[in-house]
Specification:
The protein contains three helices and nine strands, in the order βαβββββββαβα. The protein has 168 residues and is mainly beta. It has one domain: Sandwich (Jelly Rolls). The strands form two sheets. The protein has a five-stranded antiparallel β-sheet. Strands 3-8-5-6 form a four-stranded antiparallel β-sheet, with no helix packed on it. The longest helix has 10 residues. 29% of the residues are buried.
Length: 168
């Protein structure tokens, strides 16, 4: 499979969607890397994403899924989850599955906050985005309880400080 053209990714800090597609080959490769109970939860569509670092944001437009990001090209960086004080490697071959509602950023390894000037002209990171349906096998595997009536939901309308990931 050909990788998408990333030369149009000029704005640092923003995650650029470069196209949604289906691929049996990619689905098979990802399914083989997942524990057996989760393979059926993998959705069949994927999307290319590219960024020159990414400021803190959430992806609250995803519904009833856990989101996966598989780094396929670019410099070693990290996906940083400020509220959880967690950092996950994001170098070629690394992948992570997370709650898309959780604020996160793509930062260089030494960075603890997003600074746009640091990423001006920086190399592009390319990710293959995938989704796991938030079904019972996924809930069990990740220790996610049932939805609770009246629980607060972090939505895309919640302001997030783009540099630190803190609520604004």
């Amino acid at each position: 499979m050909r990788l998408p053209d990333t030369t149009t990714v000029s704005t640092p800090g923003r995650v650029h969607g470069l196209g949604r597609f289906a691929s049996r080959e990619i689905r098979s490769a990802l399914a083989a890397a997942l524990p057996g109970a989760l393979r059926e939860s993998l959705r069949g569509e994927f999307e290319w994403y590219a960024c020159r670092g990414a400021f803190f944001h959430n992806d609250a437009h995803y519904s009833a899924v856990l989101f996966g990001a598989w780094c396929v090209a670019g410099p070693p960086r990290e996906i940083v989850f400020s509220r959880a004080f967690a950092r996950c490697p994001a170098a070629m071959g690394d992948w992570v599955v997370f709650d898309p509602f959780e604020p996160h950023a793509v930062l260089d390894r030494a960075d603890d906050r997003y600074r746009q000037e640091h990423y001006d002209g920086a190399p592009v990171s390319l990710f293959l985005g995938f989704e796991l349906a938030l079904d019972e096998p996924v809930r069990r595997a990740f220790g996610i309880g049932p939805p609770q009536a009246g629980a607060p939901v972090l939505a895309s309308s919640v302001a997030i400080n783009a540099e630190t990931g803190e609520p604004s």
